[in-house]
Structure prediction request, 65 residues.
Amino acid sequence: MGRLYDVKTQLTIPLEGTTMLLNAVEMAYPANAAFVKSVAAPTFVGETQRGKVYEFADFASLMII
Prediction:
């Protein structure tokens, strides 16, 4: 088994017709776990042809040990 450190998650949303809502992102890990709201606000990284890119740098607050 291995471990991952400093995992960053990027979301790309379309340039038109969508808006990133703070406190509206939920994550479930592992997949059969209950969804938990993200506590950290995403950072706007930039725009690509595919859309606006936001990054969640830290999901540590969601980890259950």
In short: The mean pLDDT is 79. The CA atoms of residues 17 and 48 lie 16 Å apart. The chain has one domain: 9-62.
